[in-house]
Design brief:
This protein is an alpha+beta fold and 154 residues long. Helices cover 28% and strands 38% of the residues.
Length: 154
């Protein structure tokens, strides 16, 4: 398989589409009928959802930066772990969530597996770390867990 070009294409998705907001690049690296699998939702077909997600993030976090932490390939698949950092200076609008700008710094990670056919991503599975994002935005509060008492048998 051609893992180096596939790895470069996956990297472009994060760095150019999400990191720089160049959504037109999505059409260069994604198949028009890409199938995206995210947690808790049915699969989505097509590039529009990915472009929309990038624009939602870029609108809420205009200074968003992306860093690829790990990447490896096996056969027709590329697995990537990347992190995002930014400042919440725009409204965040996602299904079930509307958060006005807070000015807070945010950070989250995502692990994604992309499947390739003839140089295009045709299917993706992704696990975003929304917990860290919601925590940074104050949508959820940290839970304090105290250590259990020492219960030595004796």
């Amino acid at each position: 398989m051609h893992s180096a070009p596939n790895m470069a294409a996956s990297r472009r998705l994060y760095e150019e589409v999400f990191g720089r907001g160049h959504v037109e690049v999505a059409d260069e690296i994604l198949a028009p009928d890409i199938v995206s699998h995210g947690p808790g939702s049915p699969p989505v077909v097509g590039t529009e959802q990915i472009k929309r997600q990038a624009m939602v993030l870029r609108g809420a976090f205009p200074d968003l930066t992306i860093e690829l932490a790990d990447q490896f390939a096996s056969g027709d698949r590329v697995c990537s772990r990347w992190s995002a950092r930014g400042t919440h200076t725009g409204e965040l609008r996602m299904p079930g969530v509307e958060v006005p700008a807070t000015g807070r710094p945010i950070g989250f990670e995502e692990i994604r597996i992309d499947r390739f056919v003839e140089g295009s991503i045709v299917e993706s599975w992704f696990i975003p770390d929304r917990f860290s994002l919601w925590l940074a935005l104050g949508l959820i509060q940290p839970v304090s867990i105290s250590a259990p008492p020492d219960r030595r048998l004796g």
